[in-house]
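User: I want to check something. If I give you two sequences, will you return the structure for each one separately, not as a complex?

Assistant: Yes, each is folded on its own. Here is the first sequence with its structure:
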Amino acid sequence: MIRAVAFLLCLALASALSTGAKAQTPPPRPVPANTLPARTHLILTVPLANAQTLAATAAAITNDFGVTLSAEWPLQSISVHCFVVEVGRQTDIDALVQRMRADARIRTVQRMQDFNTFASSKSARHFPVQQALVQLNAVAAQRISKGANVKVAIVDSAIDGTHPDLSGRVEALRDFVDDDRQGKGEAHGTAIAGIIGADATNATGMVGVAPDAELVGLRACWQAKGKAGHCNSFSLARALNFAILNHFDVINMSLGGPPDLLLGELIHAAIDSGAVVVAAWGEGDKAAFPASVPGVIAAGRSADTAIPAPSVDVLSTAPHNHYNYVSGSSVAAAHVSGVVALLLAAHPGLHANDVAKTLHAAVEARHGKPMLDACQALDAVVDKPFSCTQ
């Protein structure tokens, strides 16, 4: 409890310091991200400046290009200010983007992009033996490391922090969508959190891959009941900016979509800051963005360049104290993020490139299919060899 309180105080202090450093910037305009349809919105970035300069820039841009300012937010991690503008439904958006790119006041401009989570679920009426940890050989690995003191940012839909297997495990919850959940969890984020770090000490439910890791939920996606999670460039950019400023060790992104210039820049900034970014490969033959970004660890089932991890009918936490079976590359990414936390706890300061090499080297054939062996990966980064026999 003391550690959790201290962690929350550190988050608050870091946020206050970053706000103080840019005290002259205009206040954020927290428009709900799920009210900004991609077909009518663009995202522009300009260099950070004082409030008066940014206000003048926004007024000039909206006047010169005939657009309406919908939202704005500083992204201190890459030293830019973000404007979200709405365009008319009859506007030739491609032509408008080209004109904006030629304007010296505008650093970057792009369409708002949509992203989705990669998991399906079905109800678990009877609690079965949890097979995913066995497939991953995580039980043996947990004898050496459980992810203690490793900060994991879960960029996803809302996590149900009241679930018995997550209560006390989720250090903080931040909402970058609409601040309207009031602590209510959503299915995808709750499942991903359970796989990464469900409680191992409460003698009930399930156990996460890294049950001692410090989990923080960064809600950047929203989810209707029975539907996939949905996110956009604006909500994801704000969540990534927060994760970078607060120095998370691992950033899990069990989601994907089209290439995105702004998000790509933030992901590179996260990796440069020392974070390990793990993303879902997607359900196609080619990696979705951001799994396709160089330096990001992609997780999937059996793709040559992805880390294969359990992804079919995996038991995990669900809102309202329930459990569901979940499938998809989102699930694989959560397992890989958990293993990364085990590695970083055992070998703090391990670089993202070394983490990726270690994971790839620990992939073994199991029942004729490739599978990550968490214990073999951990054995490769600790000084004293140990047995991986369960």
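And separately, the second sequence with its own structure:
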Amino acid sequence: MGARKDLSVSFSRLTQEEVEAFCIEWGIGLKYNPVAPGCDKSIDQCPSGSIALYCHHFEFSNLRHPFSIFVLNVEYYRVSFGQIHPQRLARVLHFEVLCRASGYDPILLSFHRFFRLVKNGDWFTFETSKVDTYLVSSMVTTLGAWKDRFFWVSESIVPFKMIWRHPDAVLNEPEPSESESNSCFLKAIRECPSRVRPFPEYFLVLLSISKLWDKPDRDPVLMRSGQVMSALDFVKSDDTSDVEFTNAEAAAGDDVVVRGFEHRFEDAKYVSVPNVKGFTKTDAPKALTRRSARRMLKSAPQSTSSDHVDLSDDIEVSGDQGSDAEKENNLIVLGKKKSSGKKVTVTPVQGSSGKDVEGLSEEEVYVPNWGVKGMQEYEEFSKKKEKMKASMAAMKKDIDSFSKTEEAWVKKFGELTRRHEIEMGDLKKKMEADKLKLKADRQALDVQKKAFAEEKEGLKASVVQATGDNQWLIEQGF
């Protein structure tokens, strides 16, 4: 099983004591009932009334509690925190850091122009879009062990019902056009590509993202080379090892933690996503579609099941429901009014929010406009899919042919290897025989040399003796 497909087999190894200590360290109140999952529980088995959080969301992604209003607006994507990869949740917080360091409030419409929700294995990620500048220059590619460090907290920690997004839900929301965003903001933010990394607590307090600060009468200050450093320069700097974190006396009656109160959800009124600027709800026509990207039901009771959310896009229809074009291209709001001879059955969505849809009666169904693909686009995709299948079949045929050729070459190579081994064996035997013969010849030569030396010594002795015998004759003159 690949590293991206093991969500359901990754179990938490945290104990209850470790979870409570972690929550105290990171400012998560024990009133939210943090619980260590059992050693046989994966993160998608979160019990009803709770949500799941990874420790790396805080340690790496810069997530802090109380959550910022901007982070909570991610509910727009209908995805739970436990489904978001820590590296990609870091991009959400990084965007907020960039905005606040540049002097702007982050809004979801602007974020959606630079990042889009993408399915990556069992997790969802926020990847850079193709329509604007990359705001991420680099980021940490490995996180170490993080999948087995998660815990449950009460769902009251967020102001809406956080749902578990179905892995097959449609992901085709178009990016907003440039005209929909603040031109001054776009110009400023495009000049800030920077490295995604965990930021120091000092820095997050300075930007009102964190409230883990124990000096209410002091303000955090960044210093470099004896000069005050701006938050934006800190974000844009890849190397901040020479930055000194200090503090200065705050203005009278000013508190850096209280100052960022309006940016965070602290039991205050929360503005739901459909009512956030740039995401206004539109009236839906009174026709039926078989393919809707997401739907929220207010009349259906909240499910207590811990299974995946079923966001399948099929709506069962009994009776004649009009033309196929109406079924494929329109969205619907169903109310109390009875339709004549037409019965519609809608499958409720588990955990759909009852707090983020306004203006509907209790039995109405709100279907947002999520840019659903039309039938023509679906047919084009089917054609491309068939072409891809044919291409893959041809590639498989070529691979089989290559495999046979490779097998023949391997066989021939084996035969050559065996022949070479035989020839080398014969050559080795011949060399051993020649070596033994040379050794024998050398020994015979040594014997002959010794015999010659002995003969030479004998001749010398004979000469000496003959000279001695004839010495008298020589002396007498003969």
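Because they were folded independently, the notes below concern the second chain alone. The first strand starts at residue 50 and ends at 54. Residues 280-375 have pLDDT under 50 and may be disordered.
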